[in-house]
Amino acid sequence: MEQEKALVRKSQEDIKAFGELYDEHYARIFNYVLRRTASIESAQDITSEVFFKALKNIKRFRWRGIPFSSWLYRIAANEIASYFRNHGRVEYDPDPVSNPDNMVSSSAEAEIIEAEAELERHEEFLALHKNISRLSVKYQEVITLRFFENKRLKEIGEILGKREGTVKSLLHRSMEKLRNLME
Q1: Chain segment 60-101, per-residue pLDDT in tens
Q2: Is residue 20 included in any domain, yes or no?
Q3: Which of 17, 22, 41, 140 could, after both became Cys, cross-link 11 (CB 3.0–4.6 A)?
Q4: 48, 100, 125, 182 from 55: Cα distances, Å
């Protein structure tokens, strides 16, 4: 935490130092946005906007007992909400983009089995994401932060500006609603 504080202070004084914060947090923020939107292109655009806004406002960031990453997640949550307000619901593409370079196998049969397994995982992810996206935004946020970003309840509360008890309640209700949708 002290190292991060020093890096933030350095970035507040010299914008060029922001690159280190970007490098440290980009992958996690991108993955969070991707899990919420299920679109690589949208996730790239939104993540770029998150870091642009963070860079633009870094001098206004103040330590209030929450990590810098929570501030980034809050910006991301706001950008995702804005994206959905402007673009509506996500359209799902049932055909995954396959990348043969990622498949390591010694025979065509092994490649086919691996591709089928990847397709099945992708379809399961899309089905889960589709059901999550049918929930209200407040439930989507807590599910994504808790289960995809592995955030603790306290961290989720800091990111969303809610008390820990409220987050616990939202998480419980969101899981009930998701369970009903999955049946």
Answers
A1: 888 777 788 889 999 999 999 999 888 875 544 434 344 344
A2: yes
A3: 17
A4: 10, 37, 32, 40
